[in-house]
Amino acid sequence: MILSTKWQLIIQRTSEEDDNKESQEVVDDHLTRQLTKEYLDLLVNVTHDRKTVESSDDIGDEEVIQTPANPREETLSLLGQMCLKNESIYPSLLMFVYSCLSWSDTSVANRATGLCYSTLKQFHADQNITNDLALYFFRSVLKGLHTHGQHEELQSSLLLLGLQTYELLRPQYPELTQVLLQVPNCTEDLIQGFDVKLLQPNNQKQFNEKKKKDAFKKLVADIIGKSIGQMFKREIHYRDLPTLFTVSRKKHLPLDSVEPHNMGLCDLFTPSNGAPTFINQELD
Predict the structure, then answer these.
(1) Taking the model in full, what pTM does it have?
(2) Counting CB atoms within 10 angstroms of each CB, which of 5, 61, 94, 240 has the fewest?
C-alpha cells in the first residue's frame, strides 16, 4: 500500500531525530497525514449508516455519521457488510484500519478505534477470521498502545478495543494468550485469572466494563507507551520508619480541683457591711 510505505518513511525519519528537515520532507509529512485522514473518513462514510439532518437556514441538508454511545452496539451499513465480503476489498481495508492504530497521528488512531471493532465484529460474524488474522488484529492493538499510550484519552480507547478484541476472539482462538505471554511481567497465572473473570459465564461475581478494562490494563501495563518525562521516572518507595516522639498535651483540670479551698469568687458578687452607703440604700 502506498500509505503504508509513506508512513514507514515518516517513522524512519522520526527515529533518526534530524532537526534539519528539508522542506520537501515536511510537505510529504503533511500530505501523508492529510491523505490518511481523508481516506479514513471515506471508509467511515462508506461502511457506516448516515442520517440526514435538516438545517434551520434552509440552505441544505447535512449528512452526519450515526455514532452510538456504546461501541458494542455499532454496526456496519449494508454497503460496509458487502465490502467485507468482497475478497478484493476487505484485505486492504482491514490492513489500513488496523495500521492506523500504530501510525504516529493521534487523531487518525483515535478515529480508527471506532471503525476497528465494528469491522472486526462483522468479519467475525461472517466466519472469515483465521488464526493469523486474529493474531494480527490483537497485535495491532497492542502496538497502538505502545505507540500512543502516553495520551490518556487514546489509551482508554485502545484499552477498550483490546479488551473487546480479546473477549470476542479468545474463546475461538486460544493462541491470543501466546501474544500476552510476550508482554514483560505477564505470566500464565495472571492470564488464567483474567480469563476466569472475563470468560466464565457461570461466574457468580460479575465484573463491569471498567473493572474488566482495569484488569486488562494490568496485563499489558509494561508495553503501554509513556512520555519522555515518565519513561525514566524513579518510583519513590517509603520505608517503614519508626514513629517520632510526640509531646503529650497536658489535660487542663477544672479550677476547683486545682484550688480546692474557697478562693472568694462568690464574695465579690455579694453585698457586705463594708459596701458604700448609696448601695445599701438602693438595696433597702
Answers:
(1) 0.69
(2) 240
